[in-house]
Design a protein that fits this description.
alpha+beta; Beta-Lactamase; Helix Hairpins; 5-stranded antiparallel β-sheet; 12 helices; about 15% strand; elongated; transmembrane
Length: about 450
């Protein structure tokens, strides 16, 4: 651009100088001895021509600069529909071509962005998850179709305050939102009962605090899972009953036949086997009963030394490290049942008996209980499902041992985790929260 301007200005100055010299020579011939008059006439002739020529040369450039400034302003406002034209083949033409190419790129990107926004809006509007975006506990900024049907009978919710909408919604929903955090809640009764999951996230948007609420209906999924669970329960119970009742019927028939023949010397063995199978069946049924009717824990202060000693009388294990001296408040019967299940699982894992150990220690605001073994551990799939009720990898397993331990831990306000150990084996960890610790 500088080269173009320099060339034009050089040509213009040369032309004006030539014109001034010609006029001066002509006037000197007609007005000899009057240089001032000649200079004045030259200026009167050349200056207007110079001004007119300069303005005619600068006008297209100034117009182009104004057009460039206007298109840049349009780009800033999101309008990329403008393009420029420069008739001459110089540096300004290259500048205009680059500017137009930038506009084409911005137009293509804007079109792609619009299509993406349209796709995203279509997905968000038609998702079955109700979505509400609320600005700093104030008005609703955005609500999709599911949220409109859930809270406004199909009407638009934008601009309405969340507390006003909740005042017209079900009491369970209002209570779940007021409670804060994520969680499940149920609306309706009987056949009209619906289960929802509420998830909420807070973030800053345009310098203001916003909260996103997601309401997902889980009724159909839970009912499907419930049916699948009941089918599995029935299969497990039927399998266990058949495994127990068939031998019992056979033994009873054999005993009756021996009595008929007067050969009673084998009756004690048959009756002992019947008693063993009956106790096994009773234990199986009691396991289901405990899982289905786990009572609320009765928290009492317990000393760890006495509790672990009672536990060691029922199943062998090694105690790693010193036991905590501070007592802890928990339901001794329930926690004993949970640890018995975990310790028996450790022995049944294939671990050597001396490698099964129990480690109880204080960590910040928690009591941590580890049940450790040196068996083969668990695969990722088994780790994911091991705590699910009725899930078992054993042919004769009920899938209740770990599930019951989880129920007991959570009933105490704690949690349970499973992890493979370095060098082989499994670590099952129970955590009791700080509220259960006695002073």
């Amino acid at each position: 651009m500088r080269l173009s301007l320099l060339t034009r200005w050089s040509a213009l100055v040369g032309t004006l100088l030539t014109l001034g010299i010609v006029i001066a020579l002509a006037l000197t011939h007609y007005l000899p001895g009057q240089p001032l008059l000649v200079l004045a006439v030259c200026l009167l002739c050349v200056v207007p021509l110079a001004v007119i020529t300069i303005r005619s040369q600068l006008a297209p450039m100034l117009s182009l600069y104004r057009a460039l400034a206007g298109t840049v302003t349009s780009y800033r406002d999101g309008d990329f529909s403008f393009s420029l034209h420069w008739p001459q083949n110089d540096e300004l033409c290259d500048l205009v071509a680059a500017h137009n190419a930038l506009g084409e790129v911005l137009r293509a990107q804007r079109l792609d962005l619009v299509q993406r926004e349209l796709l995203l809006d279509t997905m968000v509007q038609n998702t079955p998850v109700a979505m509400l975006l609320v600005a700093d506990n104030g008005p609703v900024v955005y609500a999709n179709l599911a949220a409109r049907h859930l809270l406004g009978q199909g009407r638009k919710l934008e601009g309405h305050r969340l507390d006003e909408l909740l005042a017209q919604a079900s009491a369970a929903l209002a209570e779940a939102v007021a409670r804060g955090g994520d969680g499940l809640f149920t609306t309706g009764e009987g056949e009209q009962e619906e289960v929802f999951h509420l998830a909420r996230r807070r973030f800053n948007l345009n310098g203001r605090r916003h909260e996103l609420l997601l309401l997902r209906q889980l009724t159909s999924e839970l009912r499907r899972q419930e049916v699948q669970t009941w089918k599995k329960v029935i299969r497990v119970i039927s399998h266990e009953l058949n495994n127990s009742l068939a031998p019992l019927a056979s033994l009873a028939h054999s005993g009756a036949e021996l009595v008929r023949r007067g050969q009673t010397e084998r009756l004690p063995q048959i009756l002992a086997t019947i008693g063993e199978r009956t106790r096994h069946l009773e234990s199986f049924i009691l396991g289901y009963a405990r899982f289905a009717k786990l009572p609320t824990p009765r928290l009492e202060a317990q000393q760890w030394a006495g509790f672990v000693a009672r536990l060691a009388e029922q199943v062998p294990f090694r105690v790693d490290g010193p036991l905590p001296e501070e007592p802890c408040a928990f339901d001794a019967a329930q926690l004993e049942q949970a640890l018995l299940n975990l310790l028996k699982n450790a022995h049944e894992s294939g671990s050597s008996p001396e490698a099964v150990s129990l480690d109880i220690r204080r960590v910040p605001d928690l009591v941590r209980i580890d049940v450790l073994d040196r068996g083969p551990g668990m695969s990722e799939a088994v780790l994911t499902n091991a705590l699910v009720p009725f899930y078992s990898t054993k042919r004769s397993g009920t899938g209740l041992g770990l599930a019951l331990a989880r129920e007991i831990a959570e009933a105490h306000g704690g949690r349970i985790t499973l992890a493979n150990r370095e060098g082989g084996g499994l670590a099952v960890t129970l955590f009791l929260p700080s509220e259960l610790l006695t002073a």
